[in-house]
Prior knowledge:
23% of the residues lie in helices and 31% in strands. It is an alpha/beta fold and 399 residues long. Helix 6 (307-314) runs parallel beside helix 7 (337-346). The radius of gyration is 22 Å and the shape is globular.
Amino acid sequence: MDRNQPSLPADLEVVVERILPGGLGLAHAEGSTVFIALSAPGDRLRVKIERVKGNVAFASVTEILKPSTDRVVPPCPYFGRCGGCDFQQLSYEAQLKAKVAIIKDCLQRIGGLREIPDLQITPAPRQWHYRSRAQWQYDAARRRLGYFESGSRRVCDVAECAVLVPELQESLSALRERLETDSLPGDARDFRAVAGDQGVSLSPGISNPDGIDVQRSIHGETYSLNAESFFQTNADLLTQLIDVALGDARGESAVELYCGVGLFTLPLARRFKQVIGVEGDAAATEMAGVNLVNAGLSNAVIANEAVGNWVPVNEFNPDLVALDFLLLDPPRTGAESRVIAGILQLQPKRICYVSCDPATLARDLKKLIGGGYSLDSIVAFDMFPQTHHVETVVHLKSL
Ligand SMILES: C[S@@+](CC[C@H](N)C(=O)[O-])C[C@H]1O[C@@H](n2cnc3c(N)ncnc32)[C@H](O)[C@@H]1O
């Protein structure tokens, strides 16, 4: 905190103004900015200051003096301790409203955009029991299995998780039974699981061999996947996500950066003569290759390389001159500066940016728009109910 500022009392009364990117509520009190976890816009709260960083105090709720009309009673008994969900205190309508406001806030403040096209968010078909991919932390010494506690590496022991699909809940329960009989591998730090149309891939495996593949059919394509490689968490919205991301794109050539096991690569290969996917994870790259072969698609290749290394080398690839379409779906950290610079060199006619972090999306859009692109459309998907996370799909066109 600023040295010239008066120090804050440990307990404060605040009114929450809005929800910020990252999911914390914003309030001002005693000349300071206060960020409050698990709050709702309009809440009048008594809060405890947990820590101070620069000009911002981070606080937790000690008493709800007057609840916001957006507030609901969180149904999960672990809520507040478990680091998994941070929006269960908000009605679903308020969650959607907060996510739209978070995206707009990032686009304006970080992206420097003055005019934002109308922004619709597609709600999740299931607000609970939607998560078909999970990572459970395992503390063998304390015999705990669950998720990290909020802001800590301590494992919150979770018997039932309200956002897991039933198949993954069964896997979690089966692991817990093994925990009780001491038959979980003592050296495992975590377990990863993904549900397919039939069956669950679990790593490390317990009753099945490690890395067993499962299949998932989405939008007429069948994908093999396993617990080791990335796959989208909410399978319910994937058909719509693919439709919006690809729009009416078709033509000669497309590049897909951060392609994973090929969720967008297969549909792209149906619409473009030549497709190049780039993926850093070797297992996902191999799986994307298998998925293309199984789909009978031979017009797409997958490069197993860090995107930051691939793009600069390929800027001047003559095959990629007059590139029709480039889709990128990076991790939360967004695209490195050299990736954005490389995209600007490649000069695709159209770009689709699929993002799970509005702040890094806005940072990268600023550079792309500054480099000669204009914003065509922006659509959000609530892929992660009960959390502040949101998926955004942005289309850009060359000026
Ligand atoms: C958000 S996922 C998207 C995957 C895919 N589009 C999908 O929807 O299933 C990001 C992917 O980028 C990969 N990745 C992360 N950093 C990378 C990098 N620097 N270079 C290449 N791939 C990377 C991850 O392994 C992961 O598969």
